Amino acid sequence: MKGYAQFCPIAKAAEVLTERWTLLVLRDLLYGSHRFNDLRRGVPLMSPTLLSKWLQTLEQAGLVVRKPGEGNGHWEYHLTGAGEALRPIVDAIGHWGQTWVRSKLTPDELDPGRLMWAMHRHFRLANVPHGRLVLYVEITDTARLPRWWFVVKRDTVELCWDDPGLHWRSVAAARPRAR
User: Fold this and answer.
1) With 0-12 CB in 10 A as exposed, 13-18 as middle and 19+ as buried, what is 35?
2) Does domain 9-103 have CATH number 1.10.10.10?
3) Exposure b/e, 74-89, CB count within 10 A at least 16 = b
4) pLDDT tens-digit profile of 65-116?
5) Domain definitions of the chain by residue range
6) Contacts of 83 (CB under 8 A, 6+ apart)
7) Distance, CA of 3 to CA of 1 (rounded, Å)
8) Which H/E stretch holds residue 167?
9) Helix (H, G, I), strand (E, B) or coil at 162
10) Is 19 exposed, middle or buried (0-12, 13-18, 19+ CB in 10 A)?
11) Whole-model pTM?
């Protein structure tokens, strides 16, 4: 990462935040992804080597801390106070993107897998009833993984592309883009 050789706080912040992939990795951390493979799903075009390197860079910048996962032998990545303080900035950039540039989507940006992963990250678990809820989603007019299941519990959401064999109560069917 090259610096701007400026004292300006905007330049210093840009040295960390404007590198390619940074905001997307921060977005996924802010929305609850902590494991390496979950972060990879959020940025599928980023190589695992680059993601690993970038997580180390964010750790060195004081935005991320790496911790052992609970009982699973894997590492998890969590935002520090400095990383969490970026939430309103990342949200504001998302709002700006929704308002000003989202209308220019290309067909390759309409990937059902990315849509399902985004939905997975945005469940409001506080509003989920007690017990288990299984939602079945079918994306028509696509050859790419057209069926998905969300297994939602009070504290977790699991996204499945294979039928989990559980009774589902809700179904949603949609086309990737209105004709």
Assistant:
1) middle
2) yes
3) eebbebeeebeebeee
4) 999 988 777 899 999 999 999 999 999 998 888 888 866 667 666 777 777 8
5) 9-103, 107-174
6) 26, 29, 30, 58, 62, 63, 64
7) 7
8) none
9) coil
10) middle
11) 0.72
pLDDT at 133: 81
Q: How far are the Cα atoms of 30, 84, 168 from residue 38, in angstroms, in the given order?
A: 13, 18, 24
Residue whose structure tokens are 């559980």? 166
Q: How many CB atoms lie within 10 A of CB 159?
A: 19
d(CA 69, CA 132): 24
| Total number of residues shown for the chain | 179
Which three-class secondary structure string do you get for 45-108?
A: CCCHHHHHHHHHHHHHCCCEEEEECCCCCCEEEEECHHHHCCHHHHHHHHHHHHHHCHHHCCHH
